[in-house]
Amino acid sequence: MILGKIIRKLRVNSLLLFLIPAIAIIGSLQIHNFLINFKYSLLIDYSYLTDVPGEEYKVNCTEDNNYCVKKNPQGYIDIGALVFNEVTLTKISNCFTNHVEGVFINNGKNYPVTNMRHPQGYREQIVPTTLFYLKGTDAEAQWVLKDEFINNKIEFKKYVTNKKDATCIKNDPKYYFLYKYVPPITYLIDQKTKTYKSNSPGIILGTNVEVNPFLYGEVSISNLVKRFPINIFFKFFLYIGVILMIMYWNNYNSIFKIILYTKKNIFYFFGLGSAVLLFLHIYFLGTTSNNEILKNFRRIVIVLFILFEVIAQTLLAFKIYKNKDNLSRYCYKLIVLTKIFFVSFIVVFTVIILIILSIFNLSSSFDYILEWNYFIVLLIFYLLSSLMWKKINF
Question: From CA 157, how far away is CA 116, in angstroms rounded?
Fold first, then answer.
């Protein structure tokens, strides 16, 4: 009765140990690429308008308001923004679905203004040179109204067009649905966009482009997952993985004590050691320090984790094989042999890779490809353990 219960726990535990770390690694990569590809940002709050085509608002452009043309603190031209007291939205979903345009009006003639999107989300607007000229050069340059228009009545009008604004998230059904109804994605998007309001570059990710390190090795695992907000996701799942690892080795130790009457199982101590080392690696992941001792400590921890994990799995596999006759009632023989073959392959492969890395100075891309694929392949240890044990009803 007790043995059957422990085996059932081990089967579930092993399957979760295969899935959860895989979710942590692959999910972190997907979050990174999602944030990289997300191009929407906080837009201007047109509080003086309603999001209805044809809506408009006018102001008189006089010398007192510099004829509606000023530079903002970042040096980009603001047309009408300071006159209308425009501010940046506090929520990305409050944007206008319809495009808002501006136009100068002089003696009944319209002088349109072209809006441009700055890479960091600020709106830069080009002044029509038929009304203004650029006085000065570089950062000190100012747009000045031409003399012949100074005594004219000049107005600036903002109006809502019937064209959809491609920069508004509401006009992208897929992203808007995810933002509105999936809280984790809402959080990620808010974290990415809110920093634009303070003119910061936003979330700093491991790369500036979408990546597939399993094939191309553009970035290391640690460099991608140590950064906010990906680190929250990664560490959450890996901490669960640490707990599952401890349960995994405890279950194996208990099973062998019952079936084989072995009081001391060396694999158990290496297994617990690998769990402790994984915890330390997660804990220190993302810490910034110029202390060489700490840097070397982190490198040693990850190397020892891999070493302890491989040793524990190797000792476990060969103990199972050595006692396969006694375990035949509880295990599928074919999967036992598959696990032995897989462990042997990993050991040989690890030794070969270490020799190659110690002799040849390979590119970082090659190292990263090995890293990403190696950690995913190691998870097969747990999948085979889940499949190996039979369903016991006693």
Answer: 18
CA angle 134/140/141 to nearest 5° reads 10
- Per the omega criterion (within 30 degrees of 0), is the bond before 229 cis? yes
Measure the CA dihedral 200/203/206/207, to 10°: -70
Give the model confidence (pLDDT) of 180-211 as tens digits. Answer: 999 999 988 888 887 554 445 557 888 889 99
Amino acid at 228: F
Enclosing H/E stretch for 117: strand 109-117
- Note the helical H segments in the chain: 2-37, 173-181, 183-194, 213-216, 221-225, 230-259, 266-284, 292-322, 324-327, 333-359, 364-378, 380-388
Which two structure tokens, joined as six digits, stand for 389?
């044990």
| Paired residues of 60 in beta bridges | 155
Q: What residue has token string 């929250």?
A: 232
| pTM, 2 dp | 0.80
Measured CA to CA, the distance from residue 30 to residue 224 in angstroms comes to 11
| Cα angle for residues 183, 186, 190 (degrees, 5° grid) | 145
Q: 112 pairs with which residues across the strands?
A: 103
Any idea what DSSP says for residue 197? G
- Among residues 170, 223, 228, 220, which one has the least CA distance to residue 194? 228
